[in-house]
Amino acid sequence: SMQRRLNRMMNSSRDHKLLALMVVEGFDPKEVTVTVKDGKVKVLAEHKEERTTSRGKEYNYRNIMKEISLPPGLREDEVTYSL
């Protein structure tokens, strides 16, 4: 379950603090962008799809955006992430 995975991640990162966990199910890893700037971590997941059908073109667009402020004293170059 998601909760078990989260607990395992929290326990395995004793020396590191887990700042956030984001569910980006349904997005390809290439569609997820993480930037660390101005004391914030910004996570953007974007999916664009275009299909031609008998009735014309169909477009599908989804996105998730989350911005997390870094705790005081944490340097931007200390931030790591994984998908």
UniProtKB/TrEMBL annotation:
Signal peptide: none
Keyword Zinc: no
InterPro entries, alphabetized: A-crystallin/Hsp20_dom, HSP20-like_chaperone, ODFP
SUPFAM superfamilies: HSP20-like chaperones
Subcellular location(s) of the protein: Cell projection, Cilium, Flagellum; Cytoplasm, Cytoskeleton, Microtubule organizing center, Centrosome
GO cellular component: centrosome; motile cilium; polymeric cytoskeletal fiber
Gene3D superfamilies: 2.60.40.790
Name under which the protein is recorded: Outer dense fiber protein 1
Species of the source: Pelecanus crispus
